[in-house]
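Quick start: read one record
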Amino acid sequence: MPQERLLRWLGNYSTSLEKAWDVTREISLPGISESLGVVRSALNVPLTQLEKQDLVFKRMAHVIGGGSRRRNVYHLTEEGRKLLSTLGDDTSKPRKSSSEGRMFGDAPTPGTVYGRSPLIDAVYDEIHQQHCLFISGLPGIGKTAVGLAAAGKLVSNGLNVRWCTANEYSDFETLCRSMSILSELPSDADALAEHLAQECKDEVLIVDDVHMISSRHLGTFVSICQHMKGLQGPKMMFIGRESLPGFEAMNRVSIPPLETNEAVKLLGKSLPRKEALHIAERLGGHPLALQLYQQDTALPEENADIQSYVEDVVLSTLDTPTRSGMDHLVLLPQPVEAKKAYDDEIVGTLDDYAFLRWTSGMEKMEIQHLVRNVRRTSMSSEEKQKLHRLAVGHWETCAETADDYVVLLFHRICAQSEGLDAHCTTAYERLSPSHSSALSVLLEQAIEASKAPSHLHYLAAKIALERCEPKHAHRHLTEIEDEGSINEINIGLAYLEGRLQDAEKSIEKGFELGNQHQKNQLALSAASRRLDDRISTELSKDAAKDIKRYLSHIELPEDAEQRAVTVVALTMVQHAVALAERDFSKADTLRANLSSISSLKNGIIIGLEAKSTLVQMQDNPVDLTNVIESTLQAIEVQPSLTHQDALRLSLVESLLELDVDLAQEHFKSVTKPNSSPSSMMLHRLHARWWFCKSHLQPSLQKVALKEAITQHRAAGCPRAANQLEALLHSLL
């Protein structure tokens, strides 16, 4: 009975919530409705009956994450809890077995699903027999519900399932993070596929809303999935409106509308059966349409499609403030925190209308995609422009996180804001280290919106290089107009693709094109790359010659501050060369010269001294304990986390040949490379990390070497990459 189900549901929540200001959404009407699998209107009668019997009481409270307006929430009375205690265990729920698997990721909270048992069984059987399966269907038809129920069955039968929900900014790495794959992830597509094939071999990976993935990332996504399939890695289930290119032959389960007799169950038992059957038939058994249905509202014309019903009936009943608040949410590119919505007071109202989708844990929300798509289509360009301009003003005041800046940049692009080049440059600095997947898509959109996109093509090419995507860098390179920018991208591409002669030509051209400040920067950058372009600690004569040639282009600035900065950078390169050549006397002199500029207590100088000690230890490992202790002390005083990691990796590299256990111990303290490097220096750091990983974790040796190769190329170290490639081939 409905009353019993309500009592059992509300009985899951503590009496401590009865006087709390903030409560969970699960005891609000929308939360109860979703959990029990019936429309909101179906709960009115049984809730009223329970209130009259003094078994349930209603009050106003603030729903966590659900906007600023207080809403109705429900609790069991003392009498209700007494009655519940007499009902015994809920036999409708299967008992949890110790042999169950686990669900990882951002899967939505499962609710009751009607009329889908054969489909759920079919999905369960198919995923056992096939490596890949696609669940398709119209918006709101129940694809996610079926996939979620099948996932629950897989878990109940001992399998681990990882769930993620895609949006237009998703690439494979961001989806992996959403699936709670917490290990370090390679950026190289083949290496990533092989890593996941190994780490998640006996699991099921589920990607919901896969049709949302942007064309910017779709090719790589499909390539990784196909590679994993070929490796007999984890089983994969995709949920979306249409199949993926390259997966046309994949087995598919299409989700049809509900049978009428099953559809009426969504309407509850408060309506006469004849009336419920009529409503279900007119709404075509479409689950979301039934959820959106409100008593006393019109039904669609016979044979009308669901989109027409949403536009002509559902949305037409909204008052002006509600529609206005909804329109701001309709244009959002991704879920946002309710409190940051343009009109957060309207969030509760829209939730009551069943217009919202919530991320797992209620952190963020967005408009139901069916409603969103219908409303977007009906808006004029002028209406959208106005809303985007208002949104820019709003998000400028509340953008705090990188996710917020993604939304802000999106609205600026769509509003065709003035100074778009400058906005994208600022966003590049803010987003490239952690949100390169979103930034890549946004720059493509900005290029489409711009009348003079040359600088945007330059930024898009830069982010492609950082993401080790030469194909996309080449595509944007042809549209850049500034000669210096073209040359910069050419240098990066040549290194990434291992074209040494082309890289050298572009470097020499850079010395001809730039002013003296730019020449100094290029010389130091080229010298550092050449210095790092090796695997061994020794430096070849050719390398030393090249470094000397690059540094010859440096002229010290007259400005005292700039002069000091240049001297420090130059001295650090010269110090590294001296260590590589085992000229420790010269290294001592260089550090002494630096100390005259700063202080002997300066972390950089202490770090250089520690590196000198580590190199000497490799030649004469006599006092390992003291060397390690002094190095750790030096690490503590480094000016940044990057400097700390670089020095700690130097310690690990020195220990690899001397004491593997100690190397392993200190390697654990190095920051894992979990995001796209935003500079060649970070690419080099990541390359070193993966190379150490290949030594310390034999099971991932080939994966780690592949990624080290990719990162070396991105760092401008093709010779080191070639050496590792030869090592990898010998292993293969």
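The chain is about 55% helix and 5% strand.
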